[in-house]
Write a structure and sequence with these properties.
It is a single chain. By secondary structure, this protein is an alpha+beta fold. It has one domain. The chain is built from 2 helices and 2 strands, in the order H-H-E-E. A two-stranded antiparallel ribbon has the order 1-2. It starts with 12 loop residues before the first helix and ends in a 6-residue tail after the last strand. The relative contact order is 0.14.
């Protein structure tokens, strides 16, 4: 039996699935998801969608927590 090669055993198999899923998204959706991840805590009152794609977020407020 051959020893397992570290490069063939993924540490987190779901990471590859997430990367594939992100690559299959339209660039507008990827940009929106990236923006939401960077925002961390906040609100969007209006999100404009055209042809099924996010186009514009209006009245975006970032929330900052000073306690945990």
């Amino acid at each position: 039996m051959k020893p397992a090669n570290a490069s063939t055993i993924p540490l987190r198999p779901e990471v590859k699935d997430e990367q594939v899923a992100m690559k299959s998204l339209h660039p507008a959706w990827r940009a929106f998801i990236r923006y939401c991840a960077e925002l961390q805590h906040g609100e969007m009152e209006i999100l404009k969608i055209q042809d099924g794609l996010p186009v514009l977020a209006e009245v975006v407020r970032k929330k900052v927590k000073f306690t945990s």
